[in-house]
Each structure stands twice: as C-alpha cells, then as structure tokens.
Amino acid sequence: MLILKCPYCGVMADETELSPGGEAHLTRHGPGSDDTEFEAYLFMRENPRGVHFERWRHAHGCGKWFHAARCTQTLEVFGTYSAQTTRPPQDLLDTISEKRPGWRWRDLA
Ligand SMILES: [Zn+2]
C-alpha cells in the first residue's frame, strides 16, 4: 500500500486517504497557444518506469494538494513537498540522484 507524508499536516496517509491528481509540473497551455502545445498539455503525459512526480490531495485529511516523488517500479517514495512550486526542491532532487545514479530532473526516459 502506498503511504505518503502530507507536507502540510505531517500525517502519514495511506492511499485510501488520498486522491491522485496525475502528473506534477505540467506546463499549462491555454488561449493563445498553438494547437500542438494545447494538445500536448491535454493529452501527453510521462509514463516512466522509475522516478515519477505526481500530484496528490490529502482528501480525507487537510484537503490540500501536494506533490510526491516516487519510483513506479519499486514504489519507493523519495519525498513529498508543497504543490506551490514549479520544480521539486533541490535537496529532493539530490536525494533521488544519489539513489538513482545517472538520473536527472526531466530526464525521465
Ligand atoms: Zn494533510
């Protein structure tokens, strides 16, 4: 069972307390963007075998959205952090790089 620590209230919440929100750190395209950008925003998602950044909501707790970094292959959770950011905290990226040599941010292949 997936267990994530809510970065706001500090509760270790299992997946029955959480609602998934899909991929984190999407670049949003709306009015004024071209069709290719808008199509990519609507439909194209990473589906890595390994490190993935996701949005979660502590639905049966504080109700706030947060981000989580985890491995889709091993289910290891690297950390959680505020959703009010455009990129993961540097210390989390450093931790992931130490555990997954060769991995880099936005190098999800
Ligand atoms: Zn919470």
Automatic annotation (TrEMBL):
Superkingdom: Bacteria
A UniProt-annotated Pfam family: SoxD
GO biological process, alphabetically ordered: tetrahydrofolate metabolic process
InterPro entries membership: SoxD, SoxD_sf
Molecular functions per Gene Ontology: sarcosine oxidase activity
Protein name, UniProt field: Sarcosine oxidase subunit delta
Organism: Pseudoponticoccus marisrubri
